[in-house]
């Protein structure tokens, strides 16, 4: 998926997670998809990055798909826009 936009982050404090969260949107072969970025993902992912999410979750919210790594998934930055950087993988705590 290509990251098209990242909205301003907010701080979430809950029983299961405390840290920054940001909404984003991306596009893949199926169309536009909502994306939730957690913790370090908020600062690591940039507009134009091509990412892969594995073992995350997908939900239908207000008739639009939203995906995230959740607690157990993993996000990999496959390619960075305008850069030849290598793949980076990280999991959510």
Describe the structure.
It contains one helix and nine strands, in the order E-E-E-E-H-E-E-E-E-E. By secondary structure, it is mainly beta. It has a single domain (about 1-80), classed as Beta Barrel (OB fold (Dihydrolipoamide Acetyltransferase, E2P)), CATH 2.40.50. Strands 1, 2, 3, 4, 6 and 7 form a six-stranded mixed beta sheet that branches. It has a three-stranded antiparallel beta sheet with strand order 5-8-9, with no helix packed on it. The longest helix is centred in the middle third of the chain and has 4 residues, at about 40-45. The model has no long low-confidence stretch (mean pLDDT about 90).
In short:
The chain is mainly beta and 93 residues long. The protein has one helix at residues 41-44; strands spanning 2-6, 10-13, 18-28, 31-38, 50-54, 57-61, 64-68, 74-79, 88-91.
List the helices and strands and how they pair.
Layout: E1 2-6, E2 10-13, E3 18-28, E4 31-38, H1 41-44, E5 50-54, E6 57-61, E7 64-68, E8 74-79, E9 88-91
Parallel strand pairs: 4-7
Antiparallel strand pairs: 1-3, 2-3, 3-4, 5-8, 6-7, 8-9
Kindly list the characteristics that best describe this protein.
single chain, 93 residues, mainly beta, OB fold (Dihydrolipoamide Acetyltransferase, E2P), six-stranded mixed beta sheet, 9 strands, globular
Uncertain regions: pLDDT < 50 for 5+ in a row? none
Q: Round the Cα radius of gyration to an integer and report it.
A: 13 Å
What is the overall number of helices?
A: 1
Global geometry: globular
**The CATH architecture:** Beta Barrel
CATH class identity: Mainly Beta
Query: What structural class do helix, strand and pairing data support?
Result: mainly beta
Estimated share of beta-strand residues:
over 45%
In CATH terms, what is the fold-level topology? OB fold (Dihydrolipoamide Acetyltransferase, E2P)
Task: Compute the separation of the termini in Å.
Answer: 22 Å
> What is the helix/strand order?
EEEEHEEEEE
**What is the overall pLDDT average?**
89
Q: How many strands, what sense, and barrel or not for the largest sheet?
A: 6 strands, mixed
Number of β-strand runs: 9
Helix content: under 10%
Number of domains: 1
Give the name of the CATH superfamily.
Nucleic acid-binding proteins
């Amino acid at each position: 998926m290509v990251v098209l936009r990242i909205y301003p982050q907010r701080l979430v404090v809950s029983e299961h997670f405390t840290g920054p969260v940001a909404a984003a949107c991306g596009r893949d072969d199926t169309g536009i998809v909502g994306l939730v970025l957690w913790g370090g993902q908020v600062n690591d992912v940039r507009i134009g990055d091509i990412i892969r999410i594995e073992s995350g979750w997908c939900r239908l919210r207000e008739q639009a798909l939203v995906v995230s790594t959740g607690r157990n998934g993993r996000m990999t930055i496959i390619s960075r826009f305008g850069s030849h950087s290598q793949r980076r993988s990280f999991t959510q705590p």
